Every structure is written in C-alpha cells, then in structure tokens.
C-alpha cells in the first residue's frame, strides 16, 4: 500500500476507509502478512498524527509542505476513492499529493520498471502459498522488481527466513521482520481486502483462505 510519509500514530485512517468506502469488505491491519499465513504476527493498525507530522516536516526543512505525485491504479475495490482520501490526509499536513489513476495494464509496466510515482498503491499477498514469505519478500527485499525498499537489517532478516528450515525458528524470524517493518515503515499497510465470489442459486461452493477454486469441490443441485 502507499508509502508512509509520517510516523504512524492513532487514530488510524484505515477503519473509516474500510467502513465507508469498502463497505466492510476488508479489514484494517498493520502487517502485510495475512492472518491465515504461516508466520503471521498481529500488528497495530497504523495511525495518523497530523501535528507530529507537521513538526517533522518543519524539522526536515519543509515547514510549508511540498508537492508530490501519487498513483493509485484502477484495480482494487474503490481504489480511486481510497486514493482521494489519502490525498486529503496528506493535505492536512501541508503536502499536496497530485493524484493519478492509471489503468492496471499500464501500471503493471511502470512499477517493476521503477517508473511509478514516489507514492504509489500496491496490494500484495501470499494467497495460494499461505506463507509470509510470499507476502513480504517481493515487496521488502531490496533488488526485487516490486520493491522500493533498501534496509540492510530487513534484507538480512528476509534472507535468514529463506535459509531457516525449522518452523518455530522461521516463525520467529517472520515476527522480527514484521516488528521491524512497523518500526521503520517501509510501506504503510492500510487494510486487506476480502475475496469476493458470486455463485448461482443451487451451487454449493465455499471460498478458501488460499484463494484457490478447485472445481472438484463445487456441487450443483439436481
């Protein structure tokens, strides 16, 4: 999700987004790892402290804020509207976020090429693997196509998680990674969308945590 331009404090902007724009088809969260994934550790939902943010901007030499581009693709649930809310929150601290809403086909070429805006929205998850590695390594490890993060300490932990075989030890490394991500805020995690399915009356189908749709599990009435 969008990179965090300020230290995250309570209250959070995520719950209102989930309630009003996503109609509760999502859950506010503080970690990129899903609750059904191996290695998940619950983290506090990032908050928003405008006064502290303004103070830090002034300390950094931007007492009157600045202008910056932000991109939100047409891909996720009401993503353009979510982008507008985030832009408004930036405005509250004196930062003018110029919102762009590119089509997904264009966006998928921009991001891995490093040509996206300085602030950009990206959803990622482990889905079918149900493992924390798939949710965090591609977006937090420096040098990965979809990562703009460069934190040596985070790289070391991510590499350690791939060298570790023992499940308990590996889970402990994943916990450290998520703790460090909360401290350093390489990305601002807002929420995790629900998977939405539609089925015809008479069809028996239950969604799965791994997002797979095995046809052999689907039943129809006679």
CA radius of gyration: 19 Å
Largest sheet: 3 strands, parallel
Mind telling me which CATH architecture this is? Roll
Strand order of the largest sheet: 3-2-4
Give the overall pLDDT as a whole number: 90
Overall 3D form: globular
Helical content band? 25-40%
How many separate helices?
7
CATH H level, superfamily name: Dipeptide-binding Protein, Domain 3
First-residue to last-residue Cα separation:
45 Å
Per the CATH scheme, the topology name is Dipeptide-binding Protein, domain 3
Low-confidence stretches: 1-10
Structural class: alpha/beta
As a percent range, the share of strand residues is 5-15%
CATH class: Alpha Beta
In N-to-C order, the SSE pattern is HEHEHEHEHHHEEE
Quaternary structure state of the chains depicted? single chain
Describe the structure.
The chain has a single domain, classed as Dipeptide-binding Protein, Domain 3 (Dipeptide-binding Protein, domain 3, Roll). The protein has 222 residues and is an alpha/beta fold. The N terminus is likely disordered. The termini are far apart. It is built from seven helices and seven strands. Helix 3 links the parallel strand 2 and strand 3.
Quick tags:
two-stranded antiparallel ribbon; 7 helices; 222 residues; disordered N terminus; alpha/beta; 7 strands; Dipeptide-binding Protein, domain 3; 35% helix
Task: Please outline what is shown here.
The chain has 222 residues and is α/β, with parallel strands linked by helices. It is built from seven helices and seven strands; from the N terminus they run H-E-H-E-H-E-H-E-H-H-H-E-E-E. It has one domain (14-220): Dipeptide-binding Protein, Domain 3 (Dipeptide-binding Protein, domain 3, Roll), CATH 3.10.105.
């Amino acid at each position: 999700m969008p990179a965090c331009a300020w230290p995250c404090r309570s209250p959070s902007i995520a719950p209102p987004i989930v309630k009003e724009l996503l109609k509760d088809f999502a859950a506010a969260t503080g970690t990129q790892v899903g609750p059904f994934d191996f290695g998940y550790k619950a983290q506090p939902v990032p908050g928003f402290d405008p006064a502290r943010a303004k103070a830090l901007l002034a300390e950094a030499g931007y007492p009157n804020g600045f202008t910056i581009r932000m991109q939100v693709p047409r891909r996720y649930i009401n993503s353009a509207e979510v982008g507008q809310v985030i832009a408004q929150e930036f405005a509250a601290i004196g930062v003018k976020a110029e919102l762009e809403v590119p089509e997904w086909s264009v966006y998928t070429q921009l991001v891995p090429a490093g040509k996206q805006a300085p602030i950009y929205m990206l959803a990622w998850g482990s889905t079918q693997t149900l493992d924390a590695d798939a949710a965090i390594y591609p977006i937090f490890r420096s040098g990965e196509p979809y990562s703009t993060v460069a934190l040596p300490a985070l790289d070391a932990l991510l590499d350690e998680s791939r060298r570790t075989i023992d499940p308990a030890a590996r889970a402990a490394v994943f916990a450290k990674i998520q703790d460090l991500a909360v401290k350093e805020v390489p990305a601002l995690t807002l929420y995790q969308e629900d998977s939405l399915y539609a089925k015809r009356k008479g069809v028996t189908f239950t969604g799965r945590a791994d997002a797979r749709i095995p046809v052999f599990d689907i039943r129809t009435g006679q």
